[in-house]
Amino acid sequence: MRLVHRPQYLAWLNDWRDKPVIKVVTGVRRCGKSTLFKLYIDSLLERGVKQEQIVSINLEELEYEQLTNYRELYAYLKARLFDGGATYVFIDEVQQCRGFEKAVDSLFVKGKADVHITGSNAFLLSGELATLLSGRYVQIEMLPLSFAEYCDFQGGSGAALFRDYLRFGAFPAVAALGDDAALVRSYLDGVYSSILVKDVARREKITDLTVLENIVKFLLSNIGSPVSLKKIADALKSAGRTISVNTVDKYVHALCAAYLFYKCDRYDVKGKTLLKTHSKYYAVDSGLRELLLASSAGDIGHILENTVYLELLRRGGKVRLGKVAEKEVDFVCATSDGLAYYQVSATVLEENTLRRELEPLQRIADNHPKYLLTLDEIPRSANYDGIRQVHLVDWLLGK
Questions:
Q1: Domain ranges across the chain
Q2: What residue ranges in the chain does DSSP mark as E strands?
Q3: Which of 49, 63, 125, 225 is deepest in the core (most CB within 10 A)?
Q4: CATH no. of 7-142
Q5: What angle (nearest 5°) sits at the alpha carbon of residue 391, between those of residues 390 and 392?
Q6: CA 44 – CA 41 distance, rounded (Å)
Q7: What's the pLDDT band for 148 if we cut at 50, 70, 90?
Q8: For residue 370, what pLDDT is reported?
């Protein structure tokens, strides 16, 4: 199968090459972390690194099942260090090894290895690893394909590809399956089951998978809408499943730690403070939402909002929901370049809709960039007193 090129993440690895820090790549299962390592290893070989300088293992593969604790892992890797120079070490799904952080730390302090690890759970960087390696690791969170990467792999662009991107999602293997809906659904079902069982239920010792799946479906049904833990508990209770708010909190936290969902908090634009209520949750992939909910055309606004949120994360943004008095701005995004504000709507051709979408942005008094992203075919110069209306597909492609 042809590999999907991931230039953003490859550039990150190249920037940190041979720097005295451990490189940590995290992200949802099957988003392309293993493939990224393969692409990077190929680039190292092309630039003169010898094959014997590279040690690459995936702890979910059968041939490494004996590496179940940190002593075995450390002994295996130490025996393969290259005597004549640096060794490039790649450990995929490192959380499969108990106490892996001790092996990684010991390998790092020897000073002979450039260490790279991946994991499918945010807890990878919690607890002892963070304590042992404080200040000695760098991390990047990997996401499924951007629309630009998807188009590059497919060799085209346009409305038809964008529909497939929203419908089937952005996992790299899905892009390679084409438009065979049955194959895509089968693949996504396997991915979803793996995430739910391996990265959530097994780790958190959750035995009631039915309740867990009901919470997943509730969150998927409510992307783009404010959600509280109590609201989830009440919805389950009305369906005959009594559950405490604390248990809901535990389950939702685990789903976010597995990168199945991202929590987006609200930000008071005028007061410049974070707010504790009315957060939203966004799904890591629209294909999983389609699989579990059989979304209709009426969901398009929420799906587009979800797509924009993920793209802002890819571009390095710290993303919040914006509160302007009693009005809401879809996203306030902070990057190294400063703040920017975004409203997302499928269409604003109807005058009342346009007025409603513009009003929150118009109430913001500062001069940071303001964007209205839609699917309307409009002149590229569309501008409303400094608020730029941009076609969403063009924006995703960086045009």
A1: 7-142, 147-396
A2: 22-27, 54-58, 87-92, 113-119, 137-142, 261-268, 273-283, 318-324, 327-335, 338-344, 370-374, 383-384, 387-391
A3: 49
A4: 3.40.50.300
A5: 105
A6: 5
A7: very high
A8: 97
